[in-house]
Amino acid sequence: MAAARRGIRVATAESCTGGLLAKTITDLPGASAYFVGGVIAYADDVKVAHLCVDRASLEEYGAVSRVVALEMAAGAARRFGADLAMAVTGIAGPDGGTPEKPVGTVWMAVAAPDGTARARLERFEGDRGAVRRMSVATVLEMAAEAATYGPEGGDWSACETHGTEHARPAAPEERVAGSPIDQRARR
Fold first, then answer.
1. Distance of CA 60 to CAs 57, 163, 176, Å?
2. For 12-35, what is each residue's pLDDT tens digit?
3. How far apart are CA 187 and CA 6, in angstroms?
4. Which of 53, 69, 85, 174 could, after both became Cys, cross-link 77 (CB 3.0–4.6 A)?
5. Residue 158: partners with Cβ closer than 8 Å, 6 or more residues away
6. What is the pTM of this model?
7. Cis peptide, bond prior to residue 94, ω within 30 of zero
8. Domain count, the chain
9. What is the DSSP letter of 28?
10. Whole-angstrom distance, CA of residue 162 vs CA of residue 179
11. CA neighbor of 129 nearest in space, from 148, 110, 103
12. Whole domain around residue 134: which residue ranges?
């Protein structure tokens, strides 16, 4: 993983993947050099208590949303003192989908403890296992890009900061600069 090469400490916050992201990371030999821990936050109360997700965000946007994914990632980064945290929240199925958020809707985010972050929406097709596996693969790609390039290169250009600006229109992706990830990626 790029994080190991850069000396970046990573953490996870998972909902629909139920620990699969952390398992995938720790399946690799040497994961203890960069993986510090994770939270499986299936229930909204756990998202609030352990990842500092704002209950108002859950009520206004729902657990499967850009805002909640970003808050989960930022909360995990702060909780574990990680340089980079990954978050996944979605509807893996086979039940739980709605016309607005069908089965396969997944929001993923990567963030630093200072709140800088990037989020991405996907609508995966397939069964529950496939949705979970694709979610893990996608957020790992996002994290590798962040760890390798930082915001100055790759797909992290033209960044903006995520904060408490929940009222602005939800964009499918948000890129952010100025984090500790940037500093280590430049070394």
1. 5, 16, 23
2. 999 999 999 999 999 999 999 999
3. 8
4. 85
5. 175
6. 0.81
7. yes
8. 1
9. S
10. 11
11. 103
12. 2-185
Q: Please, are residues 86 and 124 in contact by the beta-carbon 8 Å criterion?
A: no
Cα–Cα distance for residue pair 122/143, rounded to 1 Å:
16
Token pair recorded at residue 98:
């709605």
> How many Cβ atoms sit within 10 Å of the Cβ of residue 54?
17
pLDDT tens figures, 75-126: 999 999 999 999 999 999 999 999 999 999 999 999 987 768 899 999 999 9
Biggest CA-to-CA distance, the chain: 46
How many CB atoms lie under 10 A from the CB of residue 99?
5
Residues 6+ apart with CB under 8 A from 2: 8, 143, 144, 147, 148
What's 112's domain CATH number?
3.90.950.20
142, amino acid identity: M
